[in-house]
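Quarterly update from the structural biology core.
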Amino acid sequence: MNSDATFFPLTPASISSLSRRVVRAFGLSVLIFLPITGCSNSEGPLRVPVSGQVMLDGQPLSSGVIRFIPQEGTEGPGAAAQIINGKFQFSDDDGPIAASHRVEIEATEFQGFAIDDEAAFAVYVQNTGRSPLASNPIPPIYNRASTLKAIVTDAEDQEFEFSLSSSLRHVVSH
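Predicted structure, tokenized:
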């Protein structure tokens, strides 16, 4: 140990001084941080409640994920929801914004988890020794290379129906 080192004894006065400096630094950081982050949920784009149905080869998609991704220069968040027995629903808290969207749909029942769930994907590969990607019944034209579109307006209770074909013979969306 270096004998030239200086140690500061902790006395009630030094603790009090240190405490005041910590409190001042924390208070200043809060004052600087609040204007950056904002204080209210009311700021930001208006989200819209949306619901609908997804059919694959004429049958409700048993399990999946649907994503609404704003397009045409629209700034704002995308939205994703689970599809269960062919149905999906967004509330006004988590729905898509009023804009034109590219829609991506993925099946999840073939592997039991969303394709973008990296932790679940890694566990699956570790447990089985193979990738779960090979058996996705939904072609890429409906997900990563999606041509599906939806125009979301600020009207309440909009419903969309997407009829998909595993053989890519037709694409219908309303």
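The longest strand covers residues 99-107.
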